[in-house]
Amino acid sequence: METRPASKAGSWYKKTPADLVKDLDKYLAKVPETVDGSSLPIPGARIIIAPHAGYDYSGETAAWAYSCLDLSKAKRVFILGPSHTYGLSGCAVTTFSNYATPFGDFVVDRDTIARVKEAGEMQDAPPRYDVAEHSLEMHLPYLYKRCEQTFESPEEFPKVVPIIVGSTGRAAEKDIGRLLLSYLKDEENAFIISSDFCHWGTRFDYAVYTPEGDIGRLSSLYDHSPKPSGPPIYETIRLVDEAAMEAVNSGSHDAFVDNLRLTGNTVCGRHPIGVAMAALELYAKELDDENKSRFKVVKYARSSEVIWPDDSSVSYVSAYAVL
User: Fold this and answer.
1) Does a structural domain hold residue 248?
2) Using the 8-state DSSP alphabet, how is residue 134 labeled?
């Protein structure tokens, strides 16, 4: 198959274009006209972090990132997401030539894929796992919508460069970030970093709690545990997420990695974020401008506010960086 189908259409988001655009317009309309004192899109904001859950859960949060995204000069868009479908060490690139959406297809930049694959010694993503993976697909309808707002016709739309980032250590993230640095510096490239944040609950093997508000002293709850008598569980979730967001805002790749090691926060896209932060940190040293090449979190939400130990929630974050 040359075209990857929109496998989540009709389940994770609406399948018919009319219904889908109605949802996207609804979410985008809730974003303020200005963010961080800037009109939208934010000039030079060529990289975002956005969630990848079903739109009923994360669509409103994702709208903030996509409203900030500046595609005005984009010729290609890198989409980096984690693997939920198979065990992967390092990175894998798509073998497809097109990615379908209910609105129309995106063309994959096969030339850039080939160069990145060779330079980073990346694998080919097995097509069946590529089709099953949602972390890349969930961004395509939003990206198509923003391209329609930016360009006069689909023929002018940027090509896409889908990359699945698997299990990578600190050093490997820095290496991949260094590889992507030249692309990051090129104003014809934009980047989407796909990640949800805390997955809380025993079904995620992460049910931490701190009555003292100290993320360095987290204990574990179980389905049969009594309801905590202290602050509600969702306050602990907020604390671990805020610590992760502060690390993202810090611009330090090491600070982000260290934070997740401290809390164990189940940020599913921690490796794509780590790669992006490593690249941004290198670029920041060249720019010597604290207002550029550093993520700024603009929206945070949770799927529910957990009170009982047998409940669960997933957190969503949107962020951007000006390059």
Assistant:
1) no
2) H
Overall number of domains in the chain: 1
Distances (CA, A) of 212 to 141, 206, 216, 259, 311: 42, 18, 10, 18, 21
Given a contact cutoff of 8 angstroms between Cβ atoms, the answer to whether 68 and 320 are in contact is: yes
Q: Is pLDDT above 70 for 117?
A: yes
Tell whether 181 is covered by a domain: yes
Maximum separation of any 2 CA atoms in the chain, in Å: 59
228 and 210 Cβ atoms separated by less than 8 Å: no
Query: Tell me, what amino acid is at 272?
Result: P
Instruction: Report how far residue 198's alpha carbon sits from residue 82's, in angstroms, rounded to the nearest whole number.
Output: 14
Whole-model pTM: value is 0.97
**Residue 7, pLDDT above cutoff 90:** yes
Q: Token pair for residue 234? A: 């969702």
Provide, rounded to the nearest whole percent, the portion of the chain with pLDDT above 70: 100
Q: Which residues pair with 321 in a beta bridge?
A: 47
Task: Check pLDDT > 80 for residue 290.
Answer: no
Does some domain include residue 192?
yes
CB-side neighbour CA atoms (13 Å) of 134: 15
**Rounded to whole angstroms, how far apart are CA atoms 316 and 307?**
18
The single-letter code of the amino acid at 234 is Y
Residues 60, 28 contacting (CB under 8 angstroms): no
Residue 97 lies in a domain: yes
Q: How many helices (H) and strands (E) does the chain have?
A: 10, 16
Range of the domain at 7: 3-199+267-321
Give me the CATH number covering residue 15. Answer: 3.40.830.10
Please say whether the beta carbons of 98 and 106 come within 8 A: yes
The count of other CB atoms within 10 Å of the CB of residue 262 is 15
Which two three-digit tokens encode residue 322?
């000006």
Give residues with Cβ within 8 angstroms of 29, minimum separation 6. none
Read off the pLDDT of each residue in 231-252 and give the average, rounded to a whole number. Answer: 98
Cβ atoms < 10 Å from Cβ of 147 = 20
